Amino acid sequence: xxxxxxxxxxxxxxxxxxxxxxxxxxxxxxxxxxxxxxxxxxxxxxxxxxxxxxxxxxxxxxxxxxxxxxxxxxxxxxxxxxxxxxxxxxxxxxxxxxxxxxxxxxxxxxxxxxxxxxxxxxxxxxxxxxxxxxxxxxxxxxxxxxxxxxxxxxxxxxxxxxxxxxxxxxxxxxxxxxxxxxxxxxxxxxxxxxxxxxxxxxxxxxxxxxxxxxxxxxxxxxxxxxxxxxxxxxxxxxxxxxxxxxxxxxxxxxxxxxxxxxxxxxxxxxxxxxxxxxxxxxxxxxxxxxxxxxxxxxxxxxxxxxxxxxxxxxxxxxxxxxxxxxxxxxxxxxxxxxxxxxxxxxxxxxxxxxxxxxxxxxxxxxxxxxxxxxxxxxxxxxxxxxxxxxxxxxxxxxxxxxxxxxxxxxxxxxxxxxxxxxxxxxxxxxxxxxxxxxxxxxxxxxxxxxxxxxxxxxxxxxxxxxxxxxxxxxxxxxxxxxxxxxxxxxxxxxxxxxxxxxxxxxxxxxxxxxxxxxxxxxxxxxxxxxxxxxxxxxxxxxxxxxxxxxxxxxxxxxxxxxxxxxxxxxxxxxxxxxxxxxxxxxxxxxxxxxxxxxxxxxxxxxxxxxxxxxxxxxxxxxxxxxxxxxxxxxxxxxxxxxxxxxxxxxxxxxxxxxxxxxxxxxxxxxxxxxxx
Length: 676
Ligand code: XCC
Ligand code: SF4
Fold this sequence. Notes:
It is a single chain. By secondary structure, this protein is α/β, with parallel strands linked by helices. It contains 28 helices and 18 strands. The strands form five sheets. Strands 8-7-6-9-10-11 form a six-stranded parallel β-sheet, with helices on both faces. A six-stranded parallel β-sheet has the order 15-14-13-16-17-18, sandwiched between helices. α20 (483-494) links the parallel β13 (467-471) and β14. The chain is globular and about 65 Å long.
């Protein structure tokens, strides 16, 4: 026994192979550097720790203390009846569906609690309790007011007059804030969906009442001994996911736009190479632009620049990780230093003077990595603290937001003095055009006279654009970093599918050079390349952070409204995908895509294999209800082609499959004639 112990003690810990860790050279370099410095990263842990085989199947129940009950699906299947039961009699379907809906609850809660914070801050703005935030985009406020039942004009003695912005803001803020807990009615933004889709939701009884209630009800229904019918459980799962996508997330996006401005296209860079050795490097990581907007303003002030020079730095380089990166990129052109799996690596450069985090997707291991360098790791949100003693907590409050931001920036500047000699920033970075949104797509792809999405629709109908794909979601240490994202996106654009990207997927696309207009000539099929070149857009449009998936829903709704492509999102030649998903938020997103009529394919793996009947319900039956359904395909090329096959099926149903053949033939003919 002691001998055995001694043996394991001397055995060197397994390490990841840097070349296998990522398709990105900067990431590989940093993984190798971490290993040289003996700093452990997620990549190493992924090779030493295997995922639990029972959990992978989605059939472990620990919802009461008579369990955990584990109901693995036997390798060879069942000879006769599936008699698996937990102590209480819960079937594999029930357990799997309970676990799945709880993932939706957690994901919807994360997005929507973020949204609540935004609504709360907007209420402070409207009540004039803070000067740090203002209304930067009054047009957006006027555009959303009607959905909250707020009039933008008033009738004075038979004359229509504009109401003041202050009045409108206050009413919108109060109405928006009440979406989380109102006693009656239903989530208001549901009315923004195409009519046919709303009717489906009514028919299946999944129109969300208020945002919080749907999440709470999942927790109730999945408590031991409550809902024991996977279909009924999923009904609630759908309802909560809609409260996220068409509720909490959509309100978050809109009110962020009102306060910080709706994004418009801009040029920026991406990847770890954006950090600068001779600058103070502040890396902001997490999800909420409430904080990062203030950090951006503080870091760009002359006063802070002067302070940075005092400590010997040439300036302040701000960059982001995960969705905070996307928020700062979309509105200010601040570059992302990386996506989810690159968070530890930004510190491993040795040049990260501070990493500021708020909520979601933050590795606790950041604290351990920060210990090996001079980096100050600062938590800022009351609901997200870390136990390690080297982590600083500076609580951020919207009432003195700028003050907090200045304090954080000053501390980062001061920490530049503590830089060690061991700095190594990878040289790799790419340039990209980001900053797209519903409004800017309208501007770029709208018709000159008819406005709206006419030109986009026209190009879909004539077949130059084969269809649309929403590629979203995380990285996952169980798959090679960025590989699935990039291979799937490349395969789609090669086949003339225009890609709308958000979250860490969008950062991957930017990092690998797919978000430049020039990428069209290199990677796209002839139809899509022609459209991109004509209107000057990249073949992959950056639509923002994960709450901004609501922008994809609204862009698709605009396409339906512009006409010629059916009456519902389910009619569109479109598909969704989360190639390297890991977060419960991705499950909520996937579910609201599916329930909105979108065929949605996840990569890696889904925790459903232990309950094939429930899995088939998601993969097949849901289509009959909502027009969209789940699927899973780890192989990136097959994954892309499943999406393309769905797009082609929809083109056929719309009767526009022939048009595409004609266009491509024309193009080939023209090429043959030397006209291209
Ligand atoms: Fe997190 Fe939003 Fe996933 Fe990236 S994509 S790993 S959730 S940061 Ni949202
Ligand atoms: Fe087991 Fe039922 Fe308790 Fe779940 S709820 S742990 S299946 S007894």
